[in-house]
Amino acid sequence: MTLRARLTAAFLAVVLGPVLLGAIFVGIAVSAVSQQRAKERLESGAQNVEAALAVTCQRLRLAAETTALVTADGDQPDAAQRTVQRGLARAVEVSGADGTVLTTAGVLPPKPWADCAAPAHAPFAAIAASVDVLDPSSRRIGRAYAVEPVDATLLAWLTDASGVRVDSLATDQTASESESVRVAAKLDRDATGTTPGGLLVRRLEPRPDQPLTLALSVPEPDTGGLYAVLVAVVACAGVVAVSVAWWLARSTTHPLTELAQAVERVADGDLSARVPVRSQDEVGRLGQTFNRMTREMQGYVQALTASRDQLRGQLGVLGDTLAGTHDLDRILQVILQTAAAATGAQSGVVLMVDPASGELRGQVAEGLAGFDVADLRLQLGDGLLGTVAASGEPRRGRVDRDGPVLAPVEPRCITYVAVPIAAPGVGPTTGLEPQSDLPPAARGVLALYDRHGFDEFDDADLITLRTFAGQAAVAVDNVRVHEEAQRLSLTDPLTGLSNYRYLRESLRREVERASRFGRSLAALALDLDRFKEVNDTYGHAAGDAVLAEFARRLRAEIREVDFAFRQGGEEFVVLLPETDAAGAAVLAERLGAAVRRSPVLVVSSTPGQPPRRIPVTVSIGIAVFPIHGATGAAVLEAADDALYAAKAAGRDTYKIAPDVVVAVPLPGALPGALPGALPGAQESFTGAQGPAKASTEVTPGAPKAAQPPRQSRGG
Fold first, then answer.
1. Could you give the CA distance from residue 82 to residue 80 in angstroms, rounded to a whole number?
2. How far apart are CA 529 and CA 671, in angstroms?
């Protein structure tokens, strides 16, 4: 059953129920009142009949007394006649003392007559009142009777006087065809009954001054018309109630139906659904509330959609940054911007732990006007950020309520959320660290300040920020691993010097720089003398120790701007930016002396044996760009040839490649232009064992390509 049907039924039950009950009550009450009024009418009629018969008896008694007085005077016929003529009685009879009728007047009905003074239960045709006729001496000489026949005239007069129909039971009852007489004949004394014809009948018994047995009757009240009226009223009320109930139910349920349809549309995702508001009642206010709710929900969804799209874009930028760059500052900046956009923060900062000093140093900042992040340095445990980094536990809240006290160098804020930067549950990503049940050490801190709208950061913001902090930790690991991998790919693992791969890259870069700015670049080719004998005599472990010690002495002699490389085996290369042949010879002489001066101390792997001292010398070949070659490969080849010359000269010395005129394309120079010889290019130098000898002449021309290192140079 629909709501409209239920409301209609409820309204009809509320309205028609009382109407029907009222109609039934009215019907019953009217019927009872009508019956009561009919009985009261019978009672009143009976009283009126008794009063009328009492008056009749008094009249007849007066007539009898008048007749008796006149008769006592001796005028019998005239006395009776005058009584009848005066209307005191309808018939008069005077009898003697012996009962003989002396005279009569009027038409006498047959006897017996009902005596007003002594009523009796018997059929009577008349009522009479009698008195004795006395002579002057008061002696009874006869009796005078005044008679009133019980006929239609008397009954009609009683009916008119009482207001009810009067029938006599004193006549022959079997001859009567009246229903009221037949019913009254069966009733008890003064009882009431009903005839099949709808008459209410009462039996009136004889009593003094009422000598007759009478039947009084009145019509029963006709309530059929009243019932018809009541039925018509109930039917009209029902029609009106149904119409009103239908209208009320429709006016009530129609807005609810529209609201239900709008709710279904909202459930299907249509937040533009609205309901018309036609009134200001409860249903109208419900519609207004629904419309306001859908408008606000639509605004929230649009805001969430915009926020989602913004966050998606930020995450896209973050993903592209993480995938496409190994610039740590750039990655941290994007992570900080994305975290601030996701949480609605106004500003933020990222600090990383400096492995050397163990302090927190500002890396990147966002939204902090006039704040230099490079000046932000904190010891672990100092202020808010130092506390988070030291404890490894995230924190959020208000500074004035939750603390801690900010360090003087920390950004000022009202609300904050700060999390440590540590990859959750995995620690460093190299996989070489020992397993530990302790949380991974914090690599830094990611902090956001003062959320837009002056709201505090909640747990959802804390979870979001921890996610970004985890990404930052992974990014830091990736960058460090990449830097380490890049360093290892360009570094010789035994000596710690750059390898041959980095030699080619550095040589190309330095040659380009020297060519661009018109500067010189010296290249030294170094080879340990008789290194194969070291390996054969002392073993390869001792040879590795010799190589490592030589690399240490080499790094100690060169400048910070110089480059040292292990080309392969016992061969090394040094690049000296902005250095001519004379400067390179000075370094070669100093380096040869440093190697020659003290043998290499090698600890024996056999227990109980003392350390061994291994004397080592080095031969060096020198070439300078652009004097000895137009390209890096040509210069390196010239230095290699000079190294061969040093080996041929007896080892433990250096040689400078012979001077040649090489075409070097300088910036702004015309094709075919030749640079001038550098100062000092023709000078000769003396090695450790005497004057330097020129190496075999190098024919200028197309430079040779870079070659792998040659492992044998004659020892």
1. 5
2. 43
